[in-house]
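lol forgot to send this yesterday, sorry. struct tokens for the thing we talked abt
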């Protein structure tokens, strides 16, 4: 019986907020939300206040409150976001949610409920669900700035660059509570943004190549990246050229995949995989990386006892390698190995090392994108200037991504 009542309480508040946001001004709705979810004792509608009290004091409130709160926020934000004249209410609403509470907790009779409500609210504001909500709002409101303008705004948070990196959208913007409408918009924008960057990069490289050949009447095309012209040129040559003087990254992956058919055990695969990743990058010997990486592979459970090689082993090894090379998880965001690689072999070669893993098993491409999303989320509040190293990584991966997984052929520019 209690579960049935609680389910009705949730729906009662959803319907109430939907009714309010459709018929009242944003300022009125924001004040309503403040009274119901923050103050906890001044709400004018007694039926709604009693429903909220039952939710807050419910047996499973610790599990249910985050998704409940997230949906309530989305009900308001989706309505305002879809109407240009009301969009300014969204940042005002988010600011209100994060305003420190200085008002008293109400009368003695309500103090326990109000204190619990505020603890639940604090828990939600510190959750990944709320962070995704903030990033989604940022995504909707951030204009697609010209790269030159972005360079001049180095003090703005890293989070404001989210539109530039479509491969992060699924991990930084989409959650369990993402509405179907938001999901369709994000997926559509993701496809268009990827295609647009690919086209812009191709046009820029073509223009630069022809101008370098002496065709100075060619219109100047803007650099679509946040890298310098020389960095773009180096990046392109690295990702589509002969990485070891003889083979491209695609060649090396293809050769290794053919070799896999002759390997008989997981231990044979471990040694071959180690050499596949490390042999073509001479500078990997610095900082004892090769030794530490081999020791890491030896510790993986898959290689503790010889067993037949199969696709699961390959995919699992690749995903665990990305944990080691980039970052393990949001709960353990240690990325010292990644920073060490950047310092020793440079950004393009480091991204190339990760590209080798993905080309061997394309199933782990979303897994690599998730590693970058973890780093992006970890540093999202930092100014762009303070995490320039990470911006450079994301920009280089943008180039690596379109040159290996896009529709256009960039191999011509390897001879530039």
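and heres what i got for the seq, position by position
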């Amino acid at each position: 019986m209690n579960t049935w009542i609680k389910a009705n309480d949730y729906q009662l508040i959803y319907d109430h907020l939907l009714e309010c946001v459709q018929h009242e001004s944003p300022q009125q709705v924001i004040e309503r939300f403040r009274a119901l979810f923050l103050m906890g004792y001044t709400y004018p509608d007694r039926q709604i206040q009693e429903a909220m009290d039952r939710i807050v004091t419910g047996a499973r409130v610790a599990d249910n409150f985050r998704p409940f709160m997230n949906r309530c926020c989305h009900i308001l934000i989706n309505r305002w976001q879809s109407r240009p004249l009301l969009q300014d209410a969204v940042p005002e609403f988010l600011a209100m949610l994060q305003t420190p509470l200085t008002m008293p907790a109400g009368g003695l009779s309500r103090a326990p409920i109000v204190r619990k409500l505020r603890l639940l609210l604090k828990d939600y504001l510190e959750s990944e669900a709320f962070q995704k909500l903030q990033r989604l709002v940022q995504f909707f409101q951030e204009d697609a700035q010209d790269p030159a303008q972005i360079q001049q705004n180095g003090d703005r948070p890293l989070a404001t660059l989210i539109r530039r990196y479509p491969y992060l959208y699924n991990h930084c913007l989409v959650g369990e509570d993402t509405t179907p409408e938001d999901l369709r918009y994000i997926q559509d924008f993701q496809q268009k943004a990827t295609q647009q960057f690919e086209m812009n990069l191709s046009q820029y490289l073509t223009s630069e190549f022809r101008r370098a050949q002496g065709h100075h009447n060619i219109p100047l095309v803007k650099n679509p990246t946040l890298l310098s012209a020389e960095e773009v040129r180096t990046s392109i040559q690295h990702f589509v050229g002969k990485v070891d003087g003889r083979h491209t990254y695609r060649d090396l992956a293809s050769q290794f995949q053919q070799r896999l058919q002759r390997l008989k055990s997981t231990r044979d695969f471990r040694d071959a995989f180690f050499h596949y990743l490390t042999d073509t990058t001479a500078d990997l010997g610095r900082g004892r990386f090769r030794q530490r990486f081999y020791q890491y592979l030896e510790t993986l459970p898959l290689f503790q006892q010889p067993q037949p090689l199969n696709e699961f082993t390959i995919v699992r090894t690749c995903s665990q390698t990305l944990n080691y090379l980039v970052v393990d998880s949001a709960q353990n965001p240690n990325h010292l190995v990644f920073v060490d690689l950047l310092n020793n072999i440079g950004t393009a070669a480091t991204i190339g090392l990760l590209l080798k893993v993905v080309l061997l098993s394309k199933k782990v491409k979303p897994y690599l994108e998730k590693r970058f999303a973890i780093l992006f989320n970890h540093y999202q509040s930092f100014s762009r200037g303070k995490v320039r190293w990470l911006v450079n990584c994301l920009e280089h991966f943008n180039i690596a991504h379109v040159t290996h997984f896009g529709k256009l052929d960039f191999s011509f520019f390897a001879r530039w």
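Residues 9-126 form one domain. anyway ping me if u want another try
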